[in-house]
Design goal:
The chain is of the alpha+beta class. 43% of the residues lie in helices and 33% in strands.
Length: 139
């Protein structure tokens, strides 16, 4: 009688065990969370004037109306120095984050000091499983 009861409830027992097993597996962060993390790292590293860290977030295929990756590095290095001396701030929290497939954008991103601010857009792409900044511009 007891064996029959266990066998009768076996599908339910297996479903519960399967659900419990799935719940313990770590879930990889979604694309939206990954893009947010990259943009937050970009902000923190730029405010800290950590150019090596900032540039590690840029794709080798980076393009911009301001120049290529080497030129943007110079611009960001100068900006990082100014921001350190002039109470720099970067507002990414009020920008719109859009993820569409392997592309993402965050805009507007407000970058400023006590003397004023500019708005820029960041565009990211997923390359080899990693989100990287591929474009930066006024648009």
């Amino acid at each position: 009688m007891r064996v029959r009861s266990v066998l009768k409830n076996m599908p339910l027992l297996l479903a519960v065990l399967a659900a419990a097993g799935c719940a313990t597996l770590p879930k990889a962060p979604g694309d939206r969370a990954q893009v947010t993390s990259v943009v937050q790292q970009w902000k923190q590293r730029l405010l800290a004037n950590d150019m090596e860290g900032v540039m590690s977030l840029y794709s080798e295929h980076f393009t911009s109306e301001f120049g290529n990756k080497a030129e943007i590095r110079k611009i960001l290095a100068e900006l990082g120095q100014r921001m350190a001396g002039e109470d720099g701030r970067i507002d990414i929290e009020n920008g719109d984050l859009v993820v569409s497939g392997n592309r993402a954008s965050v805009k507007p991103v407000s970058i400023g000091t006590r003397k004023g601010a500019v708005c820029r857009s960041l565009y990211l792409a997923k390359e080899d499983g990693r989100w990287l900044i591929v474009e930066m511009g006024r648009k």
